[in-house]
Amino acid sequence: MSGCSSSRRSGRALAGGHDVVTHETVSDGRRKIKIPNAAIAHGVQPISPFQMLRAMGARFVLEAQTRQLSFSSLRLLLGFGLLGSAGSG
């Protein structure tokens, strides 16, 4: 039953000019038809989500967060040598 569903999805992608994006890989198994196999059978080349993001030029930017340290936290970090000495420059 899932093979039929994969085949239907691939047919819709072909009809609409869409790409098939999946984490699945091509399989030579006969028991369960995987999405990439059905896509290829319909002339649609499947791509991975990472390939799709690369093609779209997606960028994930993490903004730097400023953290304010209390005086006691700063003194503790200096005591462990994690921030260097106060006199270094």
Q: What do these coordinates show?
A:
The chain has 89 residues and is mainly alpha-helical. It has a domain at 2-58. It has 4 helices and 2 strands. The protein has helices at 2-16, 35-41, 49-56, 71-79, and strands at residues 20-21, 46-47. The protein has a two-stranded parallel sheet. α1 packs across α2. The chain starts with a helix and ends in a 10-residue tail after the last helix. The model has no long low-confidence stretch (mean pLDDT 74).
Helix content: 40-55%
**Weakly predicted, low-confidence segments:** none
Rg over CA atoms, rounded to whole Å, is 26 Å
Q: What would the principal axes of the Cα set say about the shape?
A: elongated
Structural class: mainly alpha
Mean pLDDT: 74
Write the layout of secondary structure elements.
Blueprint lengths: L1 H15 L3 E2 L13 H7 L4 E2 L1 H8 L14 H9 L10
Parallel strand pairs: 1-2
Helix pairs in contact: 1-2
Quick take:
The chain has helices at 2-16, 35-41, 49-56, 71-79; strands spanning 20-21, 46-47. It has 89 residues and is mainly α. It has a two-stranded parallel ribbon.
Record keyword descriptors for this entry.
elongated; 89 residues; 2 strands; two-stranded parallel sheet; single chain
